[in-house]
Each structure stands twice: as structure tokens, then as C-alpha cells.
Automatic annotation (TrEMBL):
Gene3D superfamilies: Aldolase class I, Exo-inulinase, domain 1, Glycosidases. Its EC number is 3.2.1.46. Residues 40-334 form the Glycosyl hydrolase family 59 catalytic domain. Keywords: Disulfide bond, Glycoprotein, Glycosidase, Hydrolase, Lipid degradation, Lipid metabolism, Signal, Sphingolipid metabolism. The active site is at residues 183, 259. One of its GO terms (cellular component) is lysosome. Pfam families: Glyco_hydro_59, Glyco_hydro_59_C, Glyco_hydro_59M. This is galactosylceramidase. PANTHER family: GALACTOCEREBROSIDASE (PTHR15172:SF1). The lineage of its organism: Eukaryota, Metazoa, Placozoa, Uniplacotomia, Trichoplacea.
Length: 668
């Protein structure tokens, strides 16, 4: 063989090896010439359902703004496309209650709670963000005491419409989507009434999502009722496990995972989110995934601790944690936008050969695109529900072959990567650099537990602030006279679990502003409200504390002061605790539960207390003993209580107006 022949042979050999390596990669056409898939409706998250952002609003301003930037600011962090909030309904909705804009039929107030603030902040950062409101509970008057929000559909439709009108009038916010009743049955007449009432009030553009529950019942109702089909814009289902039935697609409506994720915000939570964002489309035709919840800003002792995209539940220290789900959201949210299109399965989206998935988004001009690839292992991507069927996954090479509008469009693309490591530091949302597009093929080596985005767009950024202050325990002693708040706002750190406690002026000038219980009828519950309005504060592992407060009963039975309240949320009615009740008739009881069934001590006050007079009470727990004072005189001492731990709390005997002032907690 001559020299020339030999070099030719070597070239051939190299080409052969190269093509052999290439042949090991699996070929995936990325092709819009067969038509586009559904419109992408965005990735979002939920504040509320319930009270999940409660502690965020009490953060020092600089850290609060930083957290909001990580969530909402475009090209910075999670950069969410959709922000869904609870339409507060005065009832317990998972981690607390959120106030209604109408505690009673003749009451209207659009300053309550924190969802307005958060929506304004989200819009300020991203004017294109879509807003979505959904009720969990309703105030009792809506159902005229029936516990049924559909009994008087027009009343409920007007009540919900007023919330949307309030958003427009007081905050210049347009609510893009409104839902029916979270995870509860829907009612077709009500949905039609809601559409009519929205239209009559200039809200024709607000779309209706139904029914934030299961697929089948709403899909078949839509198929059997053309009038219903005409008023439901989107079918939203919860925790679909990436699947939807044929009946849902057959309606022709966009399908959304309108609540999903709900997983601890550790690396597995990140893996869960990456997998469902892609596979909700690939397996279930869904065009939007909305995470519960936006940010875990509720006490760890409440249900579903840390089930946000990140955690910010220490307003006293300013500490927060930017968790991996923020960066796995960014892999889609910073690259593709509502109004872009998915490419069809088999033509840009689908499963990878060795498991995992990929999804291609293309903009309406067909000039910009992004391919999001996730290769999360089963072990590292389980969401808390539903169960994830077993699968295995291995490292693999993909060859994405650009065709249709994308053919000859680019000669290089940018690659971003997250690799979750379970025995060392992860790489989160790293810009790896550009990779060549050779003959319209993008070659990507895909490793297990990694997520990649390939794009021809620019502007993405891994936002960063200096580390927030270190974490700290809730500071004791703690005192609040409630004087430095706006009317109708909520006192910092208190987490209402039944009823709603707001700041109002006292009718006694000496007391200035006070915290007042504002719900006077049982709400239409979402889960279970206690019979006693109650607001928790502090730490679920407090043992030896003294809780002190001034109180005034405007009408009704009496007040509660408590320590060692074991839990809140939908089990609040059944929580253990050490609970002192003082009634206007001049009696007191001490019980070891909120319900008052486990009474361990009772007696008569030295003086009756009457209505509209201020009094002071303290409850001290230390080891196995409880003691109390009333108007600074001992009420009892050394009453044996079980060893337990929990929050401090104040509350009322029933749904009555009571006021609190000069609240304090100290170690005993
Ligand atoms: C209200 O919001 C719209 C955008 O939704 C904006 O164009 C308009 O300027 C805002 N109006 C005021 C008074 O802020
Ligand atoms: C998804 O939508 C496509 C096109 O509308 C349809 O052919 C397919 O059956 C749907 N898949 C499921 C799981 O419903
Ligand atoms: C993908 O997962 C399925 C389900 O576990 C399994 O049967 C299949 O072998 C996996 N494919 C590869 C290439 O590992
Ligand atoms: C609140 O308590 C402080 C002492 O802790 C007392 O000085 C003050 O007068 C009280 N305020 C009212 C309004 O009673």
C-alpha cells in the first residue's frame, strides 16, 4: 500500500469509527413539517391552598424582594409564567386559613391577606405573567349556612366575580383564569352562571378552568353538555401522574396539570419537577404544569413542610433557601413562553430510547426553539403522589435531527445543564457553552439524573444574591402590641388555623390597634375547620413557655390561650395542646386538646368578666405542670399536664369577635 492509500485508509477508519460512535446515538427528528403540537400554556406555581406564603410577607424587605426575584423575575430563577392564588374563603385550606374579601354579605375589603401583594409583585417583575384564582373554602353566608357553594349559584358567582373586579379596581390586575372549587365536585349550572356573571361585569376575557380535580367527571360532562363545553376553556386536573385519559383530549380543550408537584424541595423534589414538566406533555397531552406550592413560607410543624419550589419560613432571621426545583423550572421557563408551541410526539417530543424524555418548543415565528431533555432516575424523581411506576434508565447519546422550519437555521446551539448528585454537590442550571450543529444534527451525551436545555435563544441567567442571613430559632422573648400594622392586615408570624385574625382599631383608645377575630359564621369548609377560631405562633417544639395576652370579648362565649398546640392544618380540630378557656360567665377550664373534651381542671374566676372589658391572662407550662393567672392574680398552679410540645396560640371559644393586645411569649 502506498502512502497515499494508507492515509486514505486511515481517514476511512476515522470516519468509520466516528460514524460508529454516531450510530450509537439514537436519532430523534425535530420536525414541525408534520404540523405543530398544542400551544404551550406555561409553567406556574400556587400561593395558597392554603396560607402557604404566610411568613414570606413578614420578611425584611431586601430578602423578601430577593425571594420574589428567584420566583418571578424573568431570566433570573424559576421565572414563572403562571401565578395561581387562593381566593381566600375564611376556612382552613391546608396550612392555614386565608381571609375572604367578603367575610359577610355586606362586607367588602380588598386589602386583606397577602395574595394581592404577591400578585402585584409578580406582575411588577413580569408584566406577562398570567394570573389564576381559585377558591378552596367560601365564607358561610355564600351558602346561607348550607355548606354548599352551589345551592345559590348566582350568589357564589357574584362573590367570585367581585374578587376579580376587586383585583382590577384596586390593583389594576387582570385575572386571566378562574377556577371552580379546589378538589371538590363541580356543578355545571354554577359554571354557566359564573361565565354569565363574569361577562356581565366586563370579564369576558377571563378563562374558566374546570374543575381542579379529576379528569373523567369534567371531561364526560363537557362531552354531554354543549353549553358546558362552550363555557369551560381549559380542563385542569390535579396530580395526574403525567397521564390523561383519551376522553380528556377528545374534548379538544387544553389539558393542564393545574396542581402538581407537592414534593419536598430537596434534590428529589427537583427531579420530580423536571420529570413531570416534560412528561405531563409527553404522556398526557398537558400544556401547563402548576406546582403546589410557590414557596414554603409556613412553619415546619404544619402539614407538607418544605413542599414549595423553595423555602422561606424564617422571617425573623431573613434566612431562605433557593432549592433545586427553582433551577429545574428554569430549564423550561427561561427558554419557552406561553404562546409557543410544543412539537408533536415523535417529531420533537417523546421518550428517550433508554428512558427519560425530551420536549421541543418552537416560537410562533418558527425561528426560536428549545429542547428540554430530562433523564431523571426513578429513585431520584418520585413525587409524593401518585406512585411512580418502576422504570430503569441509563446514560445515552441522542442525535436531534433538525428538520422542517429548523432545518439549516443554526450552526450552533447553547447548552444548559443541571446534574443532581446524591453524594456530592449538584451542578444546577449551568451554561455549558455552545455546541455545533453538524448537518442539522445536535449530538448530546445524556447522563442519568441530569436535565438539559438546548436552544438558539439567549438571555437566560442563573440569578444570584449573596447568601441570606443564617437560620435562627424563633426569637424569645417575643412581644407584639399590634400597633404597627395597617388596618385589615395580619400580625406577623401568626398563622391562623381556623377563623381569621386581623388588625383593627380597638374601641378603647389606650389599646390602639389590636388583633381581632373576624369570622362570625362557620365557613363552607374545604377540609375541617375547628369549632374554635385559633391562630398559632412560634415553634412546634416549644415545651416550657409562658403565653400572655390582654383580651376583650365583644360578644359570645369566651377566649382561649394555649401552649403546646401539636399541629395545625386540616387536623386542627383534633390537635392536642394545653388550652385555657375563659368565659364571660366567670368560669375557666384547662384542657389537653383544642376541642375541650379532655378537661383536666376547671373553676370559677374571682370576678365575672363581662363583655367589652379588657383583661389579662397568662398560661405557663413547664415540664409536667401548668399554671395560669387572670388579671395578674393566680388562677391555678401545679396542675399536672402531659409532657408534650407545640406552638403557642390564642383563639376564641366559637366564631365570635374577640380582640387581643399585648401578646407575649417567653420561656418559663
Ligand atoms: C394597568 O395595567 C395595564 C397593563 O395590564 C397597563 O397598560 C396600564 O398602564 C396600567 N394602568 C395603571 C393606571 O397602572
Ligand atoms: C393526545 O392528543 C392527541 C392529539 O389530539 C391524541 O391523538 C392522543 O390520543 C392524545 N393522547 C392521550 C393520552 O389522550
Ligand atoms: C425503560 O423502562 C422500562 C420500564 O422499567 C424498562 O422496561 C426498559 O427496559 C427501560 N429501557 C431501558 C433502555 O433501560
Ligand atoms: C402592655 O403591657 C405592658 C407591659 O408588658 C404595659 O406597660 C402596657 O401598659 C400594656 N398595654 C396596654 C394597652 O395595656
Amino acid at each position: 500500500m502506498g502512502a497515499i492509500h494508507r492515509s486514505r485508509a486511515i481517514t476511512w477508519l476515522i470516519v468509520a469509527i466516528f460514524s460508529h460512535l454516531r450510530a450509537n446515538g439514537h436519532d430523534y427528528p425535530i420536525d414541525d413539517s408534520v404540523g405543530l403540537g398544542p400551544v404551550f400554556d406555561g409553567i406556574g406555581a400556587i400561593s395558597g391552598g392554603g396560607a402557604t406564603s404566610r411568613l414570606l410577607v413578614s420578611y425584611p424587605q431586601s430578602q423578601r424582594e430577593q425571594v420574589l426575584d428567584y420566583l418571578f423575575k424573568p431570566n433570573f430563577g424559576a421565572s414563572l409564567h403562571t401565578f395561581k392564588v387562593e381566593i381566600g374563603g375564611d376556612g382552613q385550606s391546608t396550612d392555614g386559613t386565608e381571609p375572604s374579601h367578603m367575610h359577610s354579605e355586606d362586607d367588602e375589603n380588598y386589602q386583606r391577606g397577602y395574595e394581592w401583594y404577591l400578585m402585584v409583585q409578580a406582575k411588577k417583575r413580569n408584566p406577562n405573567i398570567k394570573l389564576y384564582g381559585l377558591p378552596w373554602a367560601f365564607p358561610g353566608w355564600v351558602g346561607k349556612g348550607t355548606q354548599d357553594p352551589y345551592k345559590y349559584p348566582l350568589i357564589t358567582a357574584k362573590y367570585i366575580t367581585k374578587w376579580l373586579m376587586g383585583a382590577r379596581k384596586y390593583y389594576n390586575l387582570t385575572i386571566d383564569y378562574v377556577g371552580i372549587w379546589n378538589e371538590r365536585p363541580f356543578n355545571s349550572n354554577y359554571i354557566k352562571e359564573l361565565r354569565k356573571t363574569l361577562n356581565e361585569n366586563g370579564l369576558e376575557k377571563t378563562k374558566i378552568v374546570a374543575a381542579d380535580n379529576h379528569w373523567n367527571d369534567i371531561a364526560s360532562a363537557i362531552q354531554n353538555d354543549p353549553e358546558l363545553a362552550a363555557v369551560v376553556d381549559i380542563i385542569g386536573a390535579h396530580y395526574p401522574g403525567t397521564m390523561s385519559p383519551k376522553e380528556a383530549s377528545a374534548t379538544g380543550k387544553p389539558l393542564w396539570a393545574s396542581e402538581d408537584y407537592s414534593t419536598t424541595d430537596n434534590k428529589i423534589g427537583g427531579g420530580c419537577f423536571a420529570r413531570i414538566i416534560n412528561q405531563n406533555y409527553v404522556n398526557g397531552n398537558m400544556s401547563s404544569t402548576i406546582a403546589w406550592n410557590l414557596v414554603a413560607s409556613y412553619y415546619n410543624g404544619l402539614p407538607y413542610p418544605n413542599d414549595g419550589l423553595m423555602t422561606a419560613n424564617e422571617p425573623w432571621s431573613g434566612h431562605y433557601e433557593v432549592a433545586s426545583p427553582i433551577w429545574l423550572a428554569a430549564h423550561t421557563t427561561q427558554f419557552a413562553f406561553p404562546g409557543w408551541f410544543y412539537l408533536k410526539r415523535g417529531f420533537g417530543s417523546g421518550h428517550l430510547e433508554k428512558n427519560g424524555s425530551f420536549v421541543t418548543f418552537i416560537d410562533p415565528t418558527k425561528k426560536k426553539f428549545a429542547i428540554v431533555i430530562e433523564a431523571m432516575s426513578h429513585e431520584h424523581s418520585q413525587c409524593i403522589r401518585p406512585p411512580l411506576p418502576q422504570y430503569s434508565i441509563t446514560n445515552q447519546v441522542a442525535l436531534f435531527r433538525l428538520q422542517g422550519s429548523l432545518k439549516n437555521l443554526v450552526d450552533k446551539v447553547t447548552l444548559w445543564r443541571t446534574c443532581l448528585k446524591f453524594n456530592g454537590p449538584s451542578s444546577l442550571f449551568e451554561r455549558i457553552g455552545t455546541i455545533p450543529v453538524v448537518n442539522n444534527v445536535i449530538e448530546l451525551k445524556i447522563d442519568v439524573d441530569c436535565t438539559y436545555t438546548i436552544t438558539n435563544t439567549a438571555g437566560q441567567r442563573k440569578g444570584h444574591y449573596p447568601n441570606p442571613p443564617a437560620g435562627q430559632e424563633f426569637p424569645l422573648p417575643y412581644h407584639d402590641d399590634f400597633d404597627n400594622y395597617q388596618i385589615a392586615s395580619e400580625a406577623k408570624y401568626f398563622a391562623d388555623q381556623t377563623g381569621v385574625f386581623e388588625i383593627h382599631n380597638s374601641n378603647t383608645p389606650k389599646h390602639g390597634r389590636v388583633m381581632r377575630q373576624m369570622v362570625f359564621n362557620s365557613p363552607i369548609s374545604w377540609c375541617t375547620d375547628a369549632a374554635q377560631p385559633i391562630s398559632l405562633i412560634g415553634n412546634s417544639d416549644w415545651k416550657d413557655i409562658t403565653v400572655q395576652t390582654d383580651f376583650l370579648i365583644e360578644k359570645g362565649e369566651g377566649v382561649l390561650i394555649a401552649a403546646r398546640i401539636g399541629f395545625g392544618g386540616c387536623n386542627i380540630a383534633f390537635t392536642p395542646g394545653v388550652v385555657l378557656r375563659i368565659t364571660i360567665h366567670g368560669y375557666f377550664t384547662l384542657s389537653e386538646d383544642l376541642g375541650g373534651f379532655l378537661t383536666i381542671h376547671s373553676g370559677k374566676l374571682l370576678t365575672p368578666i363581662g363583655l367589652n372589658t379588657w383583661h389579662t391572662a397568662t398560661l405557663t407550662v413547664k415540664g409536667g405542670m401548668a399554671a395560669a393567672t387572670f388579671d395578674h392574680k393566680p388562677l391555678f398552679n401545679n396542675i399536672f399536664v402531659g409532657y408534650s410540645e407545640g406552638f403557642a396560640a390564642i383563639g376564641a371559644q366559637s366564631f365570635i369577635p374577640v380582640q387581643f393586645d399585648n401578646f407575649s411569649v417567653r420561656r418559663s
